[in-house]
TrEMBL record:
Segments of this protein annotated with the region Disordered: 681-819
Organism encoding this protein: Cairina moschata (Muscovy duck)
Name of the protein in question: Serine/threonine-protein phosphatase 4 regulatory subunit 3B
Biased composition, class Acidic residues, residue ranges: 681-693, 797-808
Ranges of compositional bias, category Basic and acidic residues: 700-731
Amino acid sequence: MSDTRRRVKVYTLNEDRQWDDRGTGHVSSTYVERLKGMSLLVRAEADGSLLLESKINPNTAYQKQQDTLIVWSEAENYDLALSFQEKAGCDEIWEKICQVQGKDPSVEVTQDLIESEEEHIEEMPETSPLIDLPSCELNKLEEIADLVTSVLSSPIRREKLALALENEGYIKKLLQLFQVCENLENTEGLHHLYEIIRGILFLNKATLFEVMFSDECIMDVVGCLEYDPSLAQPKRHREFLTKTAKFKEVIPITDSELRQKIHQTYRVQYIQDIILPTPSVFEENFLSTLTSFIFFNKVEIVSMLQEDEKFLSEVFAQLTDEATDDDKRCELVNFFKEFCAFSQTLQPQNRDAFFKTLAKLGILPALEIVMGMDDLQVRSAATDIFSYLVEFSPSMVREFVMQEAQQSDDDILLINVVIEQMICDTDPELGGAVQLMGLLRTLIDPENMLATANKTEKSEFLNFFYNHCMHVLTAPLLANTSEDKCEKDAVVGSTKSNTICPDNYQTAQLLALILELLTFCVEHHTYHIKNYIMNKDLLRRVLVLMNSKHTFLALCALRFMRRIIGLKDEFYNRYITKGNLFEPVINALLDNGTRYNLLNSAVIELFEFIRVEDIKSLIAHIVENFYNALESIEYVQTFKGLKTKYEQEKDRQNQKLNSVPSILRSNRFRRDARALEEDEEMWFNEDEEEEGEAVVPPVEKSKPEDDFPDSYEKFMETKKAKESEDKENLPKRTSAGGFKFTFSHSASAANGANSANSKSVAAQTSPASSNGSSSKNATLTTAVTATKGSLVGLVDYPDDEDDDEEEETSPRKRPRLGS
């Protein structure tokens, strides 16, 4: 029984003015020789260790609270509390403390404060002070200031002082003294009053704030806070609040209580943000009630305005009225922006009601009009309001735009207005565009779309977005990567930095934002974006940007492709191989030379991903078409790894299909799309072996005509490609008129037939498969595939006699190996 009676928790007050639990144990009061007096001891119930040893000091103020708590201050900033499991145990220890201090156990505070038990309070007159406050006179100001600052360290004494100040109407008397001091120019008195008023604010009592921030007192409180002793000259806060700060009423507010609340909130916010110094670590919690005071005022203002539907309707009417002048409209939009900012203080259910009220009154159609206006300030404020709405309920915005689509043209749809604002942002840093892009991403994010029993918002909205809005979003991208544009911008003999279309930084930044959004679509919208990319041949257009002089834009284009490949979708893979879309990526890697930079790492990571994930169709395409250009890159094992994977797969295929060893051996070096009869195939393979030349990549011969073609048909194709190449004037190939892609190697390729032939090879995309521009890709100056097309020998045997010849005829390889 005695065990539970004496069972206590020990608490100490931390720097944040929060109580920390120090452990549970059993309390006793014993004489401790070392401390020379009766002491409170608490031993931990777990291991019997000493949790507390505190001498009962005759002068310490102990306070009993709620029948089971004893609280006291051990030192200046060290408050302790014992929380008893049972009232009987608390009474027992309280008696011991009162006995040591010679007090009656019926008191609840042993020192400094008079008896304050409930029945005693009832008997006492209401004005009876709980702390003896000095009389409110000029000569006592220093004493009052000392008292106020001394109690701040003890929560109990702060409570008592607050009650005393409240009961005596003391604050109003102090503010009368302030006026006297100011009239007398009594600087010393004014400095004391600064300390007193600042100290009273730090008491953190809402009841005192009600008095201090009332209309009759607040300006005098601000006045007291102007006289900071640390300043040579007092600040002129009252002058600012009365003369400089102007209260704007966009529509007159008739409710006097609401007006008073708005004034009060502004002034109290000013006191907190401007006048009071930034609180130190120890003072942070001193102003928590002041923050709450402002918070609840804002809640009240929003609620009162919300309930006044006549007022809000009038604001909306003026906002959308064409007759409203620009200045007035700017004020109305700023009012709404602040209104929405205040609404963030509301509880979730109240915030719901707030935004529903706005939606009912027509905030979205109003924003649509305002966002399309010329005034930059108005547009910026409208964007902020739109962001509050999107963050609150993307579904509400989506529902509005889908309904709107049934009644109006694509041009004036809210989402298209937003996209146009993003595209037309005049800020060189595109600050507004970045914000709008974030909002668009929230709107098209399937993660926050609802699926209900009767409809799925995701499919409905995405169908709407891809039908009505996607063309607006991609327009700048398609416009800046069109052949006409590139042809116009390119100059004959120009380097790659000139051939790229979006040459200026702002356009490049905008395209990067659009690509970021499209990359997000690839990740989150499955078939919608897939259909769009295939229909518009979008990846080819995006990869034009690999040649941009702005590396960040080239990286955005690469990231777009990387996301597509990351899906490991065979539809995408077929689209990439059929369109030969690795070409611009590999050329970018080769153009980058031996530089070890982000572009280099990102391209290699793309190929490394394909290797690690073993994406067979892409590995085959890369090795067959580009290995000759890539084999010199030896500082990573990626490309050799791709070749190994390719050969392993060929071996596997051949083991399945064939049992004849000779067929196995020669098939290893062949990949022919045409289905040949088996004996015909054997005949060709044996023929190649007799020639003994298929083993060596033909790219390394100085005369491709010497190669023995595997079939007459292929030979004719090669011949035609060669003839058409000869017809072209080589220097002209640097202009974008000749090809969709031009690269900086072109000029060096023009120097002679040898160097052109050693690395320049046909990229075997037949005209039939070309999509608009792919036929122009048929010949590339950077080495991509062998002249012989897809029938390439892919392994160099170390003892091959042509190795030495290769060293002489591939000048571009040498520096790469050095890297």
